[in-house]
Amino acid sequence: YDRGPKEDKYHRKLAYVFCDGIHIYELMVKSGYGIIAYISRPNITFLYEMKEAENEAKESKVGVWSIKVFVDEKNRHYNRNDAD
What we know:
The chain has two helices and four strands, in the order ββααββ. The strands form two sheets. Strands 1-2 form a two-stranded antiparallel sheet. Strands 3-4 form a two-stranded antiparallel sheet. It has one domain (about 20-80): CATH 2.40.50.90. It has helices spanning about 25-30, 45-60, and strands at about 20, 20-25, 70, 75-80. Helix 1 (about 25-30) runs parallel beside helix 2 (about 45-60). By secondary structure, the chain is of the alpha+beta class. About 25% of the residues lie in helices and about 10% in strands.
């Protein structure tokens, strides 16, 4: 867990998952299987690393970044209707 709440308003756990020292969500973002969204203070311990991972995926055009306009970067969500 980070410094802030351990659950969101929908009672979902706000936790970091590591396996053999690997931050799983960072790996998913770096591979293009996720985007950074809904992060707020004080739960920002890994925000810099997550942004770096997302930028790497975006520059490499992998996963969600390989589909033009699939990610609405302004509103930080997916344009699901545009995906084929």
